[in-house]
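Incident log, support desk, overnight shift.

02:14 A customer reports that sequence design results differ from what the structure should imply. Their input is reproduced verbatim below. On-call engineer (initials T.W.) acknowledged and began investigating.
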């Protein structure tokens, strides 16, 4: 009898965030994300009526607004 292989679960980090997830990620309100989206400050992608954001774009926005 051959030993069973252990199943390994590899966590996957999300790349795409919904509007609500983007707000939670930043610790801000959903309306703040909407204003960033509508002003063109935060790039987004539309699938039907739903907006999605790349986590990398959110990180870049924060990094680009660093105050020294």
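02:41 Re-run completed on a clean worker. Output:
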């Amino acid at each position: 009898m051959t030993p069973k292989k252990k199943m390994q679960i590899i966590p996957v980090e999300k790349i795409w965030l919904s509007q609500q997830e983007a707000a939670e990620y930043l610790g801000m309100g959903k309306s703040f994300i909407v204003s960033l989206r509508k002003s063109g400050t935060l790039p987004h992608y539309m699938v039907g009526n739903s907006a999605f954001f790349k986590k990398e774009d959110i990180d870049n926005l924060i990094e680009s607004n660093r105050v020294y």
